[in-house]
Amino acid sequence: MSSVCGRSIDRAICRNYTRGLFFKRLGGAGTFMEGTGLKKKDLKRFRDTLLAKKKEILRNAQRTLNEDMTLDADDLPDEMDLASSEYLHSFTFRLRGREKVFLQKIDHALEKIKEGTFGVCEQCGEPISIKRLEARLETTLCIRCKEDQERIEKAYG
């Protein structure tokens, strides 16, 4: 017996009380998670891809800290070179800022895989299509809810 949400449960069936969805514990490679329609092999592939993206972002951040942080005015002969270098630094830091947000989304997706709720729309609770997940692994909304969100943003944005 395991415990989820403070309740004892059978290992074969785990109930996600917060969403009201049922899913089977992951057994063999062909096991589906009820409520998401995802197979264990798909989840493993998604998890591996997310971890690879996370590793790449962290490697870029480390490279930026180690190599791109130096700006020596003595190495740049004139003001134009200095301005160009400062612009490139600014651009690099903006990219790293965006990657920080992306990294948070990746961590959230990895946590959802661990919890067994990956592939479930956070707004309507419906399964997110596998094609959408393949296109955007870190997504939290199904295509319908995302389109609704974008329409609202466009109208009030």
Keywords:
disordered N terminus; two-stranded antiparallel ribbon; elongated; 157 residues; mainly alpha; 11% strand
* Shape field: elongated
Note the main sheet. Answer: 2 strands, antiparallel
Along the chain, the helix and strand elements come as: EEEEEEHHHH
CATH topology: Four Helix Bundle (Hemerythrin (Met), subunit A)
Count the helices. How many? 4
| Proportion of strand residues | 5-15%
Q: In CATH's first tier, which class applies? A: Mainly Alpha
Count of DSSP strands = 6
Strand line-up of the largest beta sheet: 1-2
CATH architecture: Up-down Bundle
Poorly predicted segments: 1-32
CATH superfamily: DksA, coiled-coil domain
Number of domains: 1
**Averaging pLDDT over every residue, what do you get?**
77
Q: Any idea what the radius of gyration is?
A: 22 Å
Q: Which structural category fits the helices and strands? A: mainly alpha
Roughly how much helix do the residues carry, as a percent range? 40-55%
N-to-C CA distance: 49 Å
